[in-house]
Design goal:
Layout (H helix, E strand, L loop, with lengths): L9 H20 L3 E9 L3 H16 L4 E3 L7 E15 L2 E14 L2 E14 L2 H17 L2 H7 L1
Helix pairs in contact: 2-3
Length: 150
């Protein structure tokens, strides 16, 4: 009879690996699709940061989606602000925002989404964030249903 030698840490490593794999399998069983946030583009760096924040937060709120790193993702979400109109009229400001989002799998485009939103009020920075977030939320609305059908 042969005896195999296992280092003392081997059972612990096997337990940890099993827990990690079990967690990943549980996420798959729940229908969670791993999506990463890819490239973004916007007219200004500050606006691009607001777009990335909105994509991250709104994508995380979509049912059936888990936001992950690009290395682990099955899908990659890319976004751009195609229109950002700011109108100032004294203390009243109006912002209109339009975003285009592309969901790709291994470089192949699977979905093209578009969202638009407007915001009105006094504080320009808050309006800009609100309009971008609402446009992203509107664009992502059909994502949950589309992923459920796949």
């Amino acid at each position: 009879m042969r005896r195999f030698w296992l280092p003392a840490a081997a059972p612990i490593a096997a337990l940890v690996m099993g827990a990690v794999l079990g967690t990943l399998d549980a996420a798959r069983a729940q229908g969670s699709t791993p999506i990463a946030i890819g490239e973004t583009s916007a007219p200004e760096a500050e606006v691009e940061g607001a777009l990335r924040r909105a994509l991250s937060e709104e994508l995380g709120a979509v049912r059936g989606v888990s936001v992950t790193s690009r290395r682990r993702a099955r899908w990659v979400l890319r976004g751009s602000i195609t229109r950002l109109d700011v109108r100032r009229d004294g203390e009243r400001n109006a912002i209109e925002c339009e975003v285009n989002l592309v969901v790709a799998e291994r470089g192949n485009v699977r979905l093209m989404l578009q969202g638009r939103a407007a915001a009105r009020g006094a504080h320009l920075e808050r309006l800009q964030e609100s309009a971008i977030r609402a446009a992203v939320r509107g664009a992502l609305r059909p994502l949950s249903e589309t992923l459920r059908r796949r």
